Records
---
Amino acid sequence: MSVINSFFDLFTRRKDSSFIYDLDLFQDIKNRAYLKRMAIDTVINYVGRAVSQSEFRVMNKGLPVKDAMYYKLNVRPNTDESASDFWQHFIYQLIYYNEVLVIQDDDGDLLIADDFSRHEFAVYEDAFDNVTVKEYTFKRSSRCLMLLLKILQ
């Protein structure tokens, strides 16, 4: 019986603590990932607030003009957002996803696309299909709807 017990003890009894699985290691990785995400979001929000407090000037022949475009960029770009909310959302998309597409709808409102597919051309402007803004997908395809920024290509 002692031979069977010693053989059984070989697999069941742990002699050193290094064999024990450390579940805190997985918890530590999760916490570090969360803290990195929080740090990135904090920096993006800080930069977004700084940009949203700036004033965009529209120039015509060297003179500042306060027209409809000035109003769209500084006061109310669309019916759902103020200019500061719009620019914070713009900077968040630009820094976090490395690109942002701003389109102008039929009413002249500026909208930030949530999803789009881009078709690149060598000589012509790029075309964008399946542009989606808040669960609405535009049916038409367009050459450069308004603006696409990529900061790291």
Note: The first helix runs from residue 2 to 12.
---
Amino acid sequence: MCESDKLHDEINVIDIKIYPNRFLKPKTTELLLNKICGLEGYVRFLIHGPSLPKKVFYGPGKGYDVNHGDRKSILVNGNGIDLKVMVGEIIITVELDKFNDFMNQLEDILTETLSVEYSLLVGIFTRTTSTISDYLKYGIGFENLIDKRYIGLIDSRARSSESISIIK
């Protein structure tokens, strides 16, 4: 068995990427994520999109506040999350053995929640192994010391509390 076959045997999760044709409003995002949290089998979800900064970083308006209507706090599964991006895609990591049931329920939720067309992609879109950034942030031998859901999500220069929210 070659090394790549061994790696594929160890992966027991799969990712589902929801790609709506428009950016989602905070209210829609909150509703959708709460419904997803109610499903059995999800491990984590990631929200991607263009940044919604608090202040203008460059140009003649540098330093002024940005008052964007979509930079709000949403409540997901009883936990507050500050939206720092316009929601353009959501990646859900799902346990492989619960994928079929999860996918059937997810399609029903998307049909009733989203008023825009969307695409669903299935594959591996997130890291499943440790990265150099993980080692820079946590040091050698960290794998058994942290939650496995953090692997591959680390920006070594940022505080995890600024970019990662734990929802239980």
Note: Helices lie at 3-10, 26-37, 99-113, 132-138, 160-163.
---
Amino acid sequence: MKLSLATAVLALTMPAISYAQDSAVTMNEKYPNTFSSGSANVSPFTQQSKRFNDWSISVGAGVPLMQSADLTSIKNGNGKNLFGYSAYVSIDKAITHAFGINLQYDRGETRQGWFNTKDAAPDATAIGARTQYDAISILGDINFSNLLRRVDNHSPYRWALHGYAGIGTIAYRAYQKDSKGQNLMTEIKPFQLGSMFMQTGAGLKFKVNRRIDIEGRLMYVVTGDDEFDGGGDKYSAVNRREEQVSDNFFNATLGLSLKLGKHESHLMWHDPLQEIYYKLDVLANKNQDIEVCKKGDADNDGVCDDWDRQLDTPAGARVDGAGVALDTDLDGVIDLYDKCVTVPGPVENNGCPVKKDNKETAVEVEKTLKDIYFNFNKATIRPESNPKLDLAASIIKENGGNYLLTGHTDIKGNAAYNLRLSKERAAAVVGALETRGVNDNVLKSRGVGSAEATIPASASDAERLADRKVTVRFIESSEWNSIQKKDYEDAPVKKATKKAPAKKKKK
């Protein structure tokens, strides 16, 4: 029982030891670093850099009351309250403004049972007891007033609520008195495993001045021992009255704290937020004459000449934060003078791209369409021709103009079939370009079959490839309207076939 209590309290009281102020030191002794709070004004934390006192000595006296035991101090037996006495002295160390550690010595005597052991037993059944104890403990001290202080509270404070919890060792002598007399029932020496105890509670401090505090405390002491109340052996008739295995008592005290050190203020009375708000208020109320645009703004672009990188910005031009006129398309012509703000172009053309001559465009498109491939004896364009069609469409869209696409075949084969096939293939190319965004009013098609073929039929297929092509010609507006969109009706044309020779009759 005592070991489990000691372990639990140790876990509660010791975690804030790691709260010690971060010195923000790096391996090369340079500041700031990645382990600092982010402030550029950091330095090693040393004894000389401390601004607050953090040591104090506390003394106090009070009244212990046995509360959870077989023999209690509060209205036990005949309904009377039995008051003992206690005193403590402690050395206190503040770790942060909200946490500290105290090494405390307690001495006292509890009185419990039916009557005060200083008096005679009122009858043969009455039992009285008293316990003299000495205890040494380590307490964790949490300053709730600093820990839970409102961020908008700018006022100083003189009252502070503290919480305490800790473990230690307790030595005691428990005496029991009845009608036969008084006897020593239990004696426990200090610093033994069975002498471990814990205590927890709260205190209210009042700051009298920079040196002295007054504090009222109420502590609850858990002895972990069923014989502390003077009931004797745990199997005695007295200790079998109640089922609890730990005799516990309250200890109400009133004490003084003497704060040590050369500084004006103690760390436990310092509120960091109050200091921050004070400095902010000082800065807010400080009159600072700041001269804006000391050198003026010569070009009236809204950026002071002190940091203007372009002091001669034209009137009306939009500028960036450095006072430089904006050039959205980065073509060297500022937006104020750029006729094509989002498309780069030369200065001589007011920032707009220069369109090519339409005849040159026709030659460029024709070169691009040179390697367009169709399925055999069909007007279906093969997939590997798509990149060429994409490029041709972009050239036409960029430069504009009206164009006539003419389909050609080689001289080999039926002339009528070749004519029809050339017309369908030219129209297929026009359709493919229009699906890529070319306006359907700027392209027309026709076919001439093998009429303009120059390679003889006896030549190889590779040589006759030069006659199988699509040519492109720019058409002036005056001539454009007289040309049909395409020069054939949408009807399938069958390839001409030769008649098979008649079979000879057998004689």
Note: The mean pLDDT is 84.
---
Amino acid sequence: MKTNYEIRYAAHPEDAKSYDTARLRRDFLIEKVFTADEVNMVYSMYDRMVVGGAMPVAETLRLEAIDPLKAPFFLTRREMGIYNVGGPGVVKAGDAAFELGYKEALYLGSGDREVTFASKDAGNPAKFYFNSLTAHRNYPDKKVTKADAVVAHMGSLEGSNDRNINKMLVNQVLPTCQLQMGMTELLPGSVWNTMPAHVHSRRMEAYFYFEVPEDQAVCHFMGEVDETRHIWMKGDQAVLSPEWSIHSAAATHNYTFIWGMGGENLDYGDQDFSKITDLK
């Protein structure tokens, strides 16, 4: 197996205004989340979130303590949320084993133990997408399915944003330190997410887009309300969203995305909204 990681530094919003397309993609887009028999990670200086993916095919993969953590185990001072967006797989954390099917999630609390990822069928490998944040205390590991989620139906087909927000790794379902994760599914005919746009300066966010057909694309919007930018994305790609940035998207097809947040509070509704007509 192989573990790849890179460090992404935080940007001031005044500086980001001058970024060209290449710089925006370099600093915020995570193009390669999954590679066969590798673990890929981005260590972001935005709330020190780690965004990554593990795709075990021919072997079992270990969650290694990358050098920036300066810790004996990856979870020594961290919590983690994992979603399986591939075939059936197994995540082992210490002596516990958790079977995850498609769109099922797992929360891992902090504490010294080895974590491994495995697929049940190499012909249909699991794809484990994860977010990790620093944690000040330990909470129990727990598997969470869509049946456990707090579901919010929002939008309408007329507004092209008919969607279900599945709040899964949130404090209404289980205790966490900083981490909140969920999965938003857009219904056929709908393409817009997170409208009206908002920011929450108390926490950053990462989006992972999937169920995007190979010949289709997602246009992710970021930046300040009066100074927006866009990043074109494919399926199985992720993007970092700073605390000062909006985070929204429209696509050429309906899609699903996983959102992960971390920062100062766990109040999902703590958002500063902007009028759609104020976007520039």
Note: Helices lie at 13-16, 21-28.
